[in-house]
Design goal:
five-stranded parallel beta sheet; alpha/beta; 2 domains; FAD/NAD(P)-binding domain; about 475 residues; binds flavin-adenine dinucleotide
Length: about 475
């Protein structure tokens, strides 16, 4: 085993940037393969955004996760059964700290240390500058910096006069102080729904501006967590039929358009659904007023937006507070832009969402939004990263390149749709899509916000089932060789 107390020069180590779920998964995998590493985070503790005491976390203490316990755990350390089916951020924080302790990862962790820049000189030589001013050379970088570093606001936000208070969802902490206030929440996804519900607890009025309609699904279906029910043979949901699934969901919570929200743009099985037990009730009660897309901003801060349902045309609203639940932009300020080029659509050009093309010494974890719990995908990416970095370490020590490494490089050079997956494993059929839709959070996670459009540079949403199947197939190359 790697002994962290034995001094190993950093130039022989991998640097993990970020100690959230992705960084921890990478650390556990590197440790298992005895690949030396350090892990840093600007935060005081491991756990990433799942630390309600952090001032810069996009989660707030009163929120519940949208993925159930079963889909929010690492296979090598399950959640305690005493935890509820849907964890609070505080419980997730406890779990992640326990995971780090269980694997002895805290010995490798340097808290309160940010990476200002990491740039490669040549393959296997990275110069890293830390917030402490210290500079070190590492052999490889796993950047697990998360998806909430770069909050996105629509262009019209720049036209708002200073008299209007604005907040990004990342800075939402709860509804205290909103008594008597008019609040406009902007965004089509999970965070917008959750914040609208939270704001409606105190605010005088909440208006929710959605550009795109989405299905709303409850956390439990037929008494079982939605993602668990959907991952089994979905008899609980009424059978393998899209219309039936939509009917079951509509019976459970109602259709968004019947409550006055925009009609979902996609069928339930293709949609980035919103997981919520409350939002449709709050809309029906009139505590949240649905609104369409914002079309203009007046000099007094008056907002013009489209109506929804039978309220057609342009409507005007003067809010005291606007909350932008409009997602996050992809990328990393600490990495040079030319190291990770973008595709024509504006997305980071990473194989399987994580692996830099043409180089073996850079992995960027978790830069995609998926429906359902994010951890299963992060674990697959992290395991492949560890295999890759173990293989290149052996190679630089003089061992011949392994067949698995060569095949990985060959696949990485091409389109990921060419990754051969066992028949049926992509769960791209109804069952898989149902599972993804109901396990969801708006894509990517609790989703964080409105669906990313091509070219907008927002963190992209991917189909979880398809991506997991490809990742498992690539991981199997290395598993089989081990
Ligand atoms: C509001 C919200 C709700 C969500 N709900 C769910 C849910 O219910 N279920 C689910 O599965 N997923 C959910 N997600 C998705 C969430 O992103 C994942 O659960 C998970 O946190 C991703 O882990 P990560 O390690 O990639 O990123 P993070 O948890 O974001 O951790 C990244 C870490 O990197 C650190 N970092 C960044 N840059 C630097 C730097 N330059 N130097 C040093 N440290 C740095 C940050 O401080 C942070 O600690 C949600 C996301 C959001 C935003």
């Amino acid at each position: 085993m790697t002994d962290p107390h034995v001094q190993i020069p950093t130039r022989e180590k991998v640097l993990i940037i970020g100690a959230g779920p992705a960084g921890l998964a990478a650390a556990a995998a590197l440790k298992a393969l005895e690949v030396p590493f350090d892990m840093v985070d600007r935060a005081r503790h491991v756990g990433g955004i799942w630390d309600p005491e952090r001032e810069d976390t996009p989660v707030w203490p009163a929120m519940d996760m949208v993925s159930s316990r079963e889909f929010t755990q690492f296979e090598d350390m399950l959640q305690p059964v005493s935890f509820p089916e849907y964890l609070s951020p505080g419980q997730m924080a406890k779990y992640l700290r326990a995971y780090a302790a269980h694997h002895g990862l805290t010995d490798h962790f340097r808290p309160r240390l940010a990476v200002r820049s990491a740039r490669p000189f040549e393959e296997g030589v990275w110069q890293v500058e830390f917030s402490s001013g210290h500079i070190a050379v590492y052999r490889a970088v796993i950047s697990a910096h998360g998806i909430s570093e770069r909050p996105h606001r629509p262009d019209w936000a720049a036209e708002l006069p200073s008299s209007v208070r604005v907040l990004h969802a990342k800075d939402w902490t709860g509804p205290d102080g909103l008594e008597g206030q008019r609040v406009l929440v902007v965004g089509s996804g999970q965070s917008a729904a959750d914040i609208s519900v939270d704001a409606a607890r105190r605010a005088l009025e909440v208006r929710w501006s959605m550009r795109t309609g989405h299905w709303v699904v409850p956390r439990r279906i037929a008494g079982v967590p939605g993602d668990v029910a959907a991952s089994r043979e979905p008899s609980a949901l009424g059978g393998l039929n899209a219309r039936i699934a939509e009917t079951v969901v509509a019976r459970a919570v109602g259709r968004p358009q019947d409550a006055g929200l925009p009609r979902p743009a996609a069928g339930l099985l293709e949609d980035s659904v919103i997981v919520s037990d409350d939002v449709l009730d709050r809309v029906r009660e009139g505590r949240i007023t649905p609104a369409g897309e914002v079309t203009g901003v007046g000099p007094d801060g008056g907002i013009t937006h489209l109506g929804t349902g039978h309220h057609a045309g342009h409507l005007r609203y003067v809010p005291d507070l606007i909350v932008f639940a409009t997602g996050y932009e992809s990328g990393a300020d600490h990495l040079p832009q030319d190291v990770v080029p973008r595709t024509a659509a504006g997305d980071l050009d990473l194989f399987l969402g994580a692996f830099a093309r043409g180089r073996d010494d850079l992995v960027i974890l978790g830069q995609q939004r998926v429906s359902g719990g994010a951890l299963p995908l992060l674990v697959q990416q992290a395991d492949i990263a560890a295999y890759l970095l173990a293989a290149t370490r052996e190679q630089s020590a003089g061992a011949p390149s392994s067949a698995a490494l060569e095949e990985f490089r060959r696949l990485r050079a091409g389109s990921e749709s060419a990754v051969p997956t066992p028949a049926g494993s992509s769960r791209g059929g109804l069952r898989g899509r149902l599972s993804d839709a109901l396990g969801a959070r708006p894509s990517a996670g609790r989703a964080i916000a409105p669906a990313a459009g091509a070219g907008e540079g927002l963190v992209p949403a991917v189909d979880r089932g398809t991506q997991l199947a490809r990742l498992r197939a690539v991981r199997a190359l290395f598993d089989d060789a081990a």
